[in-house]
Amino acid sequence: MDKGDTVIDGGLVDIAMSYRKELMPDQGLCIQVYSEIDGHDTEILRFDCFDQDPHYHYGPENHNIRLHLDKTTAGNPVGWTMDNIRNKLPEMVRRSGYDALADGLEANPVSQATLDDAEAKARDLSRNERRTVHHLMPEMLDGDCIEVGNLRFGLEYRHLANDEGMAIHVLSDVAGQEVELLAFDCFEKGPHYHYGPRNQDVRIYWDVTTSGETLRWTLDQFKAGNIRNMIERAGYPSIAASVDEALLQQTLPEIEARSLELVALNKGSDPKAELMKEIESLREKVAAL
User: Could you say which of 1, 37, 42, 183 has the lowest number of CB atoms within 10 Å?
Assistant: First the structure.
């Protein structure tokens, strides 16, 4: 991959960095070690300090040994990376296949001041370049935010420049502020859902061949009792632990009926009759509770 835009001169090597957020299911800081080999600026090491799948490469332009990082034992990927660059750089360069460069680094190591500067920049980029999504819910109508214990379900039919569809926002309060925990964008062309839009923003695009209709898939996850696990994966374990599952199951017919009604109101006459029948059936179930 290309050399990062932030480059720190370490003498025999450059330490380059870029924050990668074009990867929808993942994101994080990329730290690269470069050096001139046979007149060519060569990537010697690459550390992909991602949220979900952190890993690193020995000799990306050589034999490209890729190893995964276990965050449970290694801790923060950026901290782990900088610790190894500080203390094991010659050994890692040697394993990458560049013995002469490793010998040079043993004789003339990167200065501590340079490494301190690199670590400060790395942590700053990790903190400030993070991709998050803030759905403003501009098309949500009054009354379409349904409270269920410590959760709220915001329902809206969204119209974008080149797409449209039903959206379900799962919300809760964190430190006195409303935060979106999960978002399900059941669009016609690019349907996807988010774990923690304001946190790690893990964005997953549905394969409609296997999932089927995406609004139905979403509602089925709620009915199957998966919302706690999904909220926990989004980074909110204490909120997940406080979900009132019994109350949620009691309220789901209302959430489902209104979601289908919004689709029917926005999709014209073709699917409306079928949807309205289903809505009426759901309303009868709600009235019977």
Answer: 1
Which residue matches tokens 């050399």? 3
137, 143, 148, 151: CA torsion to nearest 10 = 20
**pLDDT for 235-267, tens place per residue?**
999 999 999 999 999 999 999 999 999 999 998
Q: Cα angle vertex 194, ends 189, 200, to 5°?
A: 140
C-alpha to C-alpha distances, 116 to 26, 82, 88, 277, nearest whole angstrom: 27, 9, 15, 66
- Would you kindly state where each structural domain of the chain is located, as residue ranges? 6-128, 145-288
Of the candidates 111, 162, 151, which has an alpha carbon nearest to the alpha carbon of residue 243? 151
Measured CA to CA, the distance from residue 167 to residue 155 in angstroms comes to 6
State pLDDT tens for residues 12-32: 999 999 999 988 889 999 999
Lookup: tokens for 138: 């501009």
Q: Judge whether 94 and 102 are in contact, CB under 8 Å.
A: yes
What is the amino acid identity at position 285? Answer: K
